[in-house]
Protein 1
Amino acid sequence: MISYRHLFTFEYPKYATFLKSLDEDTRRSFFGYTANDAAIDHLVTGFHSAAHKHEFIVATDAQPNWVGVVHIAHGGSVRTSQEAELGIIVKPENRRQGIGNELISRATLWARNRNYLDIYMHCISRNTAVMNLVKKHNLKIDMEYDEADARITLPAPTLKSLMSESTRINMDLMQAAFKLSTPWAA
């Protein structure tokens, strides 16, 4: 069973560890180049120093190993203060299980409920997994050479969208508490 949760700021080094655990091809598909460990550490240090501009939603398996993450950059670190940028990565062995779909769905809902007008993703066009996800979520794709920008305008938050996010978070917390209280359930 896959669980989802928001990352605490003090856990940002775990994000670096996750990224560094990925093979070269996966790193290249995510970053657009093969980021070395020092580059990843530098990136995550920057996230930590501006934590108020970053949100992470993590997908974990039953162990709980990280199997995917969506990073939401917002407020000043992106093109305008009215938009959020998404970066998603799911371990290759955990793809085709709906994890990326759920991460995008949660990130979009998070951004919508905080009054962001647009979300976008900068994608490497040969990253077919991400390209399929952005198409599935109706992001408009602008291609230029080997790169693509995918974008969607978000509707205004509603009581239903706010309740949906709250329900998901509460269900995640109950699932985590159940796993902790019943080791056999993991």
Protein 2
Amino acid sequence: MVAHAIPDYVLVGQRERLLAMVDILESVPPEEIRAIARRSAFTRLEARDAVLVAPGEHEERLLLLLEGRARVCEEGPAGRELTVSVVEGGTLVGATGFASCRPWGLRVEALEPSLVCGLRRRTFDELVGRYPTVGTRVARLLGERLIETEGRLADLARKEVPERLASQILRLVESEGLVTPEGYKLPTRYTHQQLATMIGANREAVTRAFGKLRNRGAVELRNRRIFVTGPETLERIAQG
């Protein structure tokens, strides 16, 4: 499905409030936030809607996820999709705006109703010139994501699919898990295909791996949501 442009009835004040809550903009004063809101494009995404960024468009704008949850995907050779990250509202999406070109396009798919802001690169550069802490926050954020990506690459090199799946579920629990009487719950309904794109596997391999985790008492699937019923067991499996 395609993205939906935000209509006029969405109040400017709401946009400003959400922009002010974005992690890289926390030090920016209200008058600058108002200026950003006036000069930026806003897009509403329903679940499974997506914003597409073509290979030559990466340096033109930064994408900010203001609310909701989305996965950032790249399409590699032979059309194989890879989930680069899963992000929550209030942060920068991927590394858009920081590279002149990338070999493949970027796809930002909403996992739940979401709001995306497209910030022009020129606007961002001017903002960093006036408020250097914005640039520092971006550098720190991208550094943290690089460390996480390196960990996932290490998993691909040394772990089998069940171990990689266990590691990825633990990462999702850390970022979004909810505590329930039945164990940790992932509120987002992830399909096996989506999980497969996160760990460099195919859907069939993830289905088999999930069955192994369930047989070990580590996880359960209830109403299409993942419950971690044995966190210690899941950690042992993730460690290989």
Protein 3
Amino acid sequence: MRFLHTADWHLGRIFGGFDMLPAQQHALDGLVDIARDAGPQAIVVAGDVYDRAVPPEDAVHLLDDVLARLAEVAPVLLIAGNHDSGRRLEFGRTFLRRAGVHVAGIAGAGVERVDLGDEHGVVAFHLLPYATPEETRYGLGRGDLRSHDDATRARVATCGMSGASRHVLVGHLFVQGGQETKDAERDISVGGISTVDPGVFGHFAYTALGHLHRPHSIGSERIRYSGSLAPYSFSEEDHVKGVSLVEIDAAGGVTLEEISLPQKHGMRTLRGTIEELCARAREDDRRDRDLVRVLATDLVLPPGSGDSLRKLYPHLLEFRRDRPGERTPEGGADGNDRPSPRSEREFLESFFSSRYPGMVDGTVLDFARECLEQAVRREGGEA
């Protein structure tokens, strides 16, 4: 069984005031070309199809177009991520299924399974759209599920494993050992510990993951993030964006090939004095193409320096002084000392103790936690 694994398209993304949709269309055109050349038997999209729950109209039209073209090549298996509205994404799923597009947007009481065949028999694809622990507790009627790890274990336990010897899980999760990219992925720690033990996926020949934007595997090639469609923050400027071509043999062995996706724009950070940057720009043959961040090292910025640089770099998205050692909004100088995620109970205890010291007992905390869970369910898990 040969299939393509992609994720984190984030259609409709606006980055630094720059509309990424033309760049996304360019990368998706490349994905369609790769699919036609590779001849896969399935195409997997592991969540975060859109950048927000209510996407712009142009993004919806782009998704409609690319799904139609991909479905001409092979069945498409698509799940919702934490940026998506699962209910909106599932619109028309019955008709889409007849066209070979299988969409799983809502985490119900079980995990949807799609069986596809090759010359060695059946390969079962299990579609696990993103869900918070609160949504999983509600859907499964399990009040004991408090973390993403608990919830994922419970959902995986509902997978029907009979009738096939090879199984593939498609999920949108943060797996332990995954490589985060600062400023790129939305925090999913609300409702408990966000990470999931990779041992949960031991029964699957391959686990196709979305959420983390850097392409990489966890432990072995059997558990993999395909990475995002395009770079969406300057912390991703060193990433090589691509799509994973996966092959599962008759015994369940996995081989993997990473195929680069074409990018309309490069992305880079430039550092130096304004004089140095202006001099380098005149000989820079990529300045009209790249998305640029400038960190100026001048002690005092010359008047009008920002306007001068914007004339030289039409896609200048960020311009600021570079002050070594200065604390950033993300935490320390390197932005890596942010506090660890807290459970909802710890968050509520901290909130009430700071506002009403000595006046709140466990009954109030339990009531407040239940209100928080209901609010998260109403908002589709995007608290």
Protein 4
Amino acid sequence: MHILGSLSLLVINLAACAPVPVQSVPTETVTASLTPAPTFTTTTTLVPTSTPIHTPPALPGLFQTLLLNPVDTPHTYVQDTCMYLRNKWSSANSTPGTVAMVIMFHSIVADDVTPNANQIPGKEFHELIGALMNNGFEAITTAQLAGFLENNARIPPHSVLLVVDDRHHAQYFNTYFRSYWEEDGWPVVNAWISASRDSYDASLWTEQEALNTEGWVDYQAHGVIHNTPMWPGVSDAYIMGELQGSIDAFQLHFNKKPIAIIWPGGGFSQRSVEIARQLGYQLGFTTNARGPLMFNWVPLGDTVTPEHGDWQPEGPINDPLMVLPRYWDTDAILHIGDVVKVGLDAANYAGQNKATELEYYDIACKTQYGPIP
């Protein structure tokens, strides 16, 4: 009995310990929405490298020549180096080595021999013009010379400015200069003394007005009273009378304003140059035969020297364009070859230094001034 009870209890316990069958649970198909894993961009800190700095090359020195008197030295006047190089190398302007020769005529006479050192016989005058033409020179006006000296405006490579000083009747110009105008297009400058009609023959004014209308006689100022030069010591009032008086007379009789003062007697001063500039004069001419002219290149004297006697030194004025040199008609023919040679040598010197100057311009100037035309 006890045995049967024990067996029954054992069966019950074993049943309780038997594993429970696992029921099958239906599964659902689940579509998972996957969020892509974030991507990370690596930021690289760039260390700036030094930009190469181009240093402009050293510019060549000013052209020098042994064909000038050693006491006469070339002076420059263009302050802006970049503008100088731009105008120098622009293909629209005069080529380097372009040279201008200024010649003054005080009196041309018919006689073969003259007693006055300021006079040139007519025969020698025509020989001078012929020599200029044979060496390739062409005559220009004062305005053309001003454009060349100031901005390197184009003029003939060998140019000459013929300047007749003082007062001459129309017949003087007709006899000696008209044929060169009509046949070759050569103008002539008249450095005109603007004294009143009461002081001179009134017919002189009438004749000059007619020549001015024709256009081949280029009138420029030569003072009013004229006989007292505008050198150191004269009053501002006198200087103003000579310079403004010329302007007033020109506007009245020639309907123009002179742009050049041909200094009477070759005399000038710091004050006369300053007043001339204030009144709008662009050029001034002395009687000192220092040499030819080129763009940004004017031979001047800096001190009084035994070689030139009483010539006033122009260098201390610090305005080369207002104290330009002129050759004398009586010996200008002897200097034509030297003038041509100066131009050729200057052209060669410029050619040797062209690459350096253009490199300087590209580095130091091009950004502000643009490419050279």
